[in-house]
Amino acid sequence: MKLTQEQLSEKIDVTASYLGAVERGEKSMTLEKLIDLINVFDVSMDYILSDFIHPKIDKKDEDISGMINNMNDRQRSLTLEIAKLIKQNYP
Which in 27, 37, 48, 85 has the greatest CB count within 10 A? Predict the structure, then answer.
């Protein structure tokens, strides 16, 4: 559903300027208005908040995490020391 700020603001009973301030992170939306928004778009709360609840993980982060999970304690300690050296010497 494509709506302008004005159309959406009318549907959830707020001003377009308030909605713009929410989009820019200048204001927070009340729970009541968040529920109204969810109802307008007919989606779940976790869908709306998914970027905050389940941050997107970069493929590289997944690869590194998978490798570390398969290491023994000694390998993890060495990897940590190597990572510290890399961070220190290659800012």
Answer: 37
Number of domains in the chain: 2
Residue 67 belongs to domain spanning: 59-89
Residue in the structure block whose two tokens are 């968040």: 34
- The pTM (predicted TM-score) of the whole model is 0.53
Contacts of 25 (CB under 8 A, 6+ apart): none
Taking only the tens place, the pLDDT of each residue in 9-55 is: 999 999 999 999 998 989 999 999 999 999 999 988 888 877 666 56
Same domain, yes or no: 19 and 49: yes
Spatial contact of 16 and 27, defined as CB atoms under 8 Å apart? no
Q: Are residues 36 and 64 in the same domain?
A: no
